[in-house]
Design a protein that fits this description.
23% of the residues are buried. The chain contains 6 helices and 4 strands; from the N terminus they run H-E-H-E-H-E-H-E-H-H. It is α/β, with parallel strands linked by helices and 137 residues long. The two termini are 15 Å apart. Helix 1 packs antiparallel against helix 5 and helix 2 packs parallel to helix 6. The radius of gyration is 16 Å and the shape is globular. About 4% of the residues have low confidence. The protein has a 4-stranded parallel β-sheet with strand order 2-1-3-4.
């Protein structure tokens, strides 16, 4: 049976997501890239996806304390807050603060993940089930 163009395009898009997650995981595992997530469930989802490098949660912490801690320890950060309005606001605020201290915020990875998954999931926690689903196809 021949696959439709839509199916092939979707398959390529999902391959791009998996490749992106593997790149992030590799950089994170080496300790070169800190990942910031909103809450504990997001952290758990990334751990289950195989991320074993530094990941810090944002919720329940004073933002100024988190920024101080991050800029003293890391040169590169990926902010994986949710894709909703609150998550976007949080992302922009953290990016602005970290960049003002000379920390590089990796926008590329966030944009790729968000663009591929935004119709399906709204948060990092949902990545785990999304990746499991596309791996079953």
């Amino acid at each position: 049976m021949r696959r439709s163009r839509k199916y092939l395009r979707e398959e390529k898009t999902y391959e791009n997501l998996i490749t992106t997650l593997e790149e992030i995981s590799s950089e994170n595992s080496s300790g070169k890239l800190l990942i910031l997530v909103e809450g504990k469930n997001d952290l758990i989802a990334l751990r289950k996806l195989g991320f074993n490098g530094p990941i810090k949660t944002i919720k329940g912490r004073k933002l100024s304390d988190l920024i101080d801690e991050v800029y003293l320890e890391y040169k590169r950060v990926l902010v994986l807050s949710d894709w909703d309005n609150e998550g976007e606001r949080l992302y922009k605020e953290i990016r602005y603060l970290l960049e003002s201290y000379g920390v590089r915020v990796e926008d590329k990875y966030r944009r790729i993940i968000k663009s591929i998954t935004k119709r399906e999931i709204k948060d990092v926690e949902g990545l785990l089930s999304f990746v499991k689903h596309i791996n079953l196809k």
